[in-house]
């Protein structure tokens, strides 16, 4: 295998400039022109735009203060930040976006957007599709390493978090036109295979390959072999030799390994299917052949040293080095991750590599990333590409505030959680008489959408770094910030539109949106902020930002609906269009969060 030089680090900004961009970026563009006109000698100043207190306007440009400190005392024509703010406002190019500008405090420029422009933008989206509101990121290709369970061990709630968070990040980046490799870095190459294979051989002495049923519950199989490994020294010795035979590629061992992996894989696949998550497996074993040459590259850079019989990379500021070759000469988790990172950068040409694991692994990734920087594979600066990000998350807690376990103190099985969420939702629907109203299929599908959606949303709505408490009662509540509440809110909007009896496709073309009432305007503005929220969620890898937006959207809608009559009013057409736009944006949010929308309740 030939190795190519490491991908060249290059600097690219995250947003493509030719794209009209998000609301915020469109404003930034206008202020950029104004900045150049106002202070032509400070060309590298970036416009600082932020949403502002609604009392003063919609957005604010905050450049005046810092500009003042730059030009003060240099014979500037301006007498203070306020004057700079005034000039910034005066020099704004004419635009349909802006209704008015005001100056406040030390030169803040407050912008009130034009209602008509907001309305037209929404109508345009209704006609051209929500895809036109996708932020365009300049990153062309990303690898997201998520889910990644360990073969023969049950997937636990930590893997559920990784699966749910990783899938959402993948969906958001895909929506933003990034080519995403959804990578399942399964643990299929550990020393645990020695004991698994020996145990398999003992159970099937004639070398006959076992059927699925024979291994049955892989978790139990794993436990049985582990118990023997710990208590029987003869078995232990054989298991250790088996690892060598497996890694040496001995046919019989390879076959047994393949089979164990295959059974595990089928188990995972069922969970992924139920969650609607797609992943592409490249397990640890895949990178094994690359490890020697990758370590050689690092060695050539003088990064690898001998320490207590092992080969290690010392990282400044860390107490322990990164071990890349163990005392016994074997490779480990870190050597695999270095090879995988090399592969993703050089063979897959990924510009952004994202790892989704619990926060406990942060240290490991920091060391791997630093090693890659020292080797020159990655630029030293964090704002340059290619880059790597560790997306850490906290623990799932039980209602007792301790690490989440079931009664039997075993790890919680994912499938059981999904089953329970679904059956609880189904019971509620039946209680509401839906089994008479709907077909059996509709009942099943709705129970699934709501149940699985509730589990996902309960996880995603929190900042991922915090621990969260797993509670069916909380997540399945139809009030408050839950998927159930949001899905019902969406279904209610759909029912309002249905009951109006109007042809929405026709209205989109012939009607116009007007935002005369303040609650209409507030809802309209919130809709228009969708793109910048997705952009922020992508840039900071924070799904909770999108959840918060969705929840606020629903709140804005409720406010609008309680003050503005829709059906039968003289504003009916405009308001129905606003309802439709809300439903469209909500559905896109659901889609990005991996939640299946429901249309009736
Ligand atoms: N298999 C690991 C675990 O269960 C997660 C792997 C994460 N990805 C990686 N490239 N190390 O903890």
Automatic annotation (TrEMBL):
<dbReference type="Pfam" id="PF03485">
    <property type="entry name" value="Arg_tRNA_synt_N"/>
</dbReference>
<dbReference type="InterPro" id="IPR001278">
    <property type="entry name" value="Arg-tRNA-ligase"/>
</dbReference>
<keyword id="KW-0007">Acetylation</keyword>
<dbReference type="GO" id="GO:0005524">
    <property type="term" value="F:ATP binding"/>
</dbReference>
<dbReference type="InterPro" id="IPR001412">
    <property type="entry name" value="aa-tRNA-synth_I_CS"/>
</dbReference>
<keyword id="KW-0547">Nucleotide-binding</keyword>
<dbReference type="InterPro" id="IPR009080">
    <property type="entry name" value="tRNAsynth_Ia_anticodon-bd"/>
</dbReference>
<dbReference type="Pfam" id="PF05746">
    <property type="entry name" value="DALR_1"/>
</dbReference>
<dbReference type="GO" id="GO:0004814">
    <property type="term" value="F:arginine-tRNA ligase activity"/>
</dbReference>
<feature type="domain" description="DALR anticodon binding">
    <location>
        <begin position="486"/>
        <end position="601"/>
    </location>
</feature>
<feature type="domain" description="Arginyl tRNA synthetase N-terminal">
    <location>
        <begin position="25"/>
        <end position="113"/>
    </location>
</feature>
<dbReference type="GO" id="GO:0048608">
    <property type="term" value="P:reproductive structure development"/>
</dbReference>
<keyword id="KW-0648">Protein biosynthesis</keyword>
<keyword id="KW-0030">Aminoacyl-tRNA synthetase</keyword>
<dbReference type="GO" id="GO:0006412">
    <property type="term" value="P:translation"/>
</dbReference>
<dbReference type="Pfam" id="PF00750">
    <property type="entry name" value="tRNA-synt_1d"/>
</dbReference>
<dbReference type="InterPro" id="IPR036695">
    <property type="entry name" value="Arg-tRNA-synth_N_sf"/>
</dbReference>
<comment type="similarity">
    <text>Belongs to the class-I aminoacyl-tRNA synthetase family.</text>
</comment>
<dbReference type="GO" id="GO:0009791">
    <property type="term" value="P:post-embryonic development"/>
</dbReference>
<dbReference type="InterPro" id="IPR005148">
    <property type="entry name" value="Arg-tRNA-synth_N"/>
</dbReference>
<dbReference type="InterPro" id="IPR014729">
    <property type="entry name" value="Rossmann-like_a/b/a_fold"/>
</dbReference>
<keyword id="KW-0067">ATP-binding</keyword>
<comment type="function">
    <text>Forms part of a macromolecular complex that catalyzes the attachment of specific amino acids to cognate tRNAs during protein synthesis.</text>
</comment>
<dbReference type="InterPro" id="IPR035684">
    <property type="entry name" value="ArgRS_core"/>
</dbReference>
<protein>
    <recommendedName>
        <fullName>arginine--tRNA ligase</fullName>
        <ecNumber>6.1.1.19</ecNumber>
    </recommendedName>
</protein>
<keyword id="KW-0436">Ligase</keyword>
<dbReference type="InterPro" id="IPR008909">
    <property type="entry name" value="DALR_anticod-bd"/>
</dbReference>
């Amino acid at each position: 295998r030939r190795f190519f030089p490491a991908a060249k680090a290059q600097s690219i900004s995250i947003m493509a400039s030719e794209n009209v961009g998000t609301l915020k970026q469109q404003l930034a563009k206008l202020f950029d022109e104004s900045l150049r006109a106002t202070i032509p000698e400070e060309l590298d100043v970036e416009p600082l735009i932020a949403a502002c207190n609604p009392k003063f306007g919609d957005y604010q440009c905050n450049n005046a203060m810092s500009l003042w400190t730059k030009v003060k005392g240099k014979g500037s024509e301006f007498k203070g930040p306020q004057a700079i703010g005034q000039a910034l406002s005066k020099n704004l190019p004419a635009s349909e976006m802006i209704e008015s500008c005001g100056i406040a405090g030390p030169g803040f420029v407050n912008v009130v957007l034009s209602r008509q422009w907001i309305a037209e933008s929404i109508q345009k989206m209704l006609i051209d599709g929500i895809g036109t509101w996708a932020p365009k990121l300049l990153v062309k290709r990303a690898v997201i390493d998520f889910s990644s369970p360990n073969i023969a061990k049950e997937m636990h709630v930590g893997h559920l978090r990784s699966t749910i968070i990783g899938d959402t990040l993948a969906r958001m980046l895909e929506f933003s036109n990034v080519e995403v490799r959804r990578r399942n870095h399964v643990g299929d190459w550990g020393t645990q295979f020695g004991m698994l294979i020996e145990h398999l051989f003992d159970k099937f002495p004639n070398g006959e390959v076992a059927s699925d049923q024979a291994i049955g519950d892989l978790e139990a199989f794993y436990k049985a072999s582990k118990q023997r490994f710990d208590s029987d020294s003869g078995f232990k010795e054989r298991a250790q030799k088996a690892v060598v035979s497996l890694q040496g590629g001995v046919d019989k061992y390879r076959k047994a390994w393949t089979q164990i992996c295959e059974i595990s894989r089928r188990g995972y696949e069922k969970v992924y299917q139920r969650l609607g998550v797609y992943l592409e497996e490249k397990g640890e074993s895949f990178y094994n052949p690359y490890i020697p040459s990758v370590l050689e590259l690092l060695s050539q850079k003088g990064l690898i040293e001998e320490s207590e019989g092992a080969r290690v990379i010392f990282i400044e500021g860390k107490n322990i080095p990164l071990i890349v070759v163990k005392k016994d000469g074997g490779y480990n988790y870190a050597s695999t991750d270095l090879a995988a990172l090399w592969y993703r950068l050089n063979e897959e040409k990924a510009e952004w590599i994202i790892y989704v694991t619990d926060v406990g692994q942060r240290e490991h990734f920091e060391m791997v990333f630093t090693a890659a920087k020292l080797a020159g594979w990655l630029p030293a600066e964090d704002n340059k590409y290619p880059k790597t990000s560790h997306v850490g998350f906290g623990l799932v807690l039980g209602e007792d505030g301790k690490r989440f376990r079931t009664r039997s103190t075993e790890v919680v099985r994912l499938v059981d959680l999904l089953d329970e969420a679904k059956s609880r939702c189904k019971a509620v629907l039946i209680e509401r008489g839906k089994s008479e109203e709907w077909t059996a299929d509709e009942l099943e599908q709705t129970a699934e959408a709501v149940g699985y959606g509730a589990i996902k949303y309960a996880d995603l709505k929190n900042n991922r770094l915090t621990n969260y408490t797993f509670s069916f009662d909380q997540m399945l509540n139809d009030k408050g910030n839950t998927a159930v509440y949001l899905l019902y809110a969406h279904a209610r909007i759909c029912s309002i539109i249905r009951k109006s009896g109007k042809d929405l496709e026709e209205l989109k073309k012939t009607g116009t949106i007007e935002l005369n009432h303040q609650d209409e305007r507030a809802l309209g503005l919130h809709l228009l902020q969708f793109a910048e929220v997705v952009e922020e969620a992508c840039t900071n890898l924070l799904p909770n930002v999108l959840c918060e937006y969705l929840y606020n959207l629903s709140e804005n809608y409720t406010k609008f609906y309680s003050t503005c009559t829709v059906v039968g009013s003289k504003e009916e057409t405009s308001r129905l269009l606003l309802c439709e736009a809300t439903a469209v944006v909500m559905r896109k949010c659901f889609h990005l969060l991996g939640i299946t929308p429901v249309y009736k309740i």
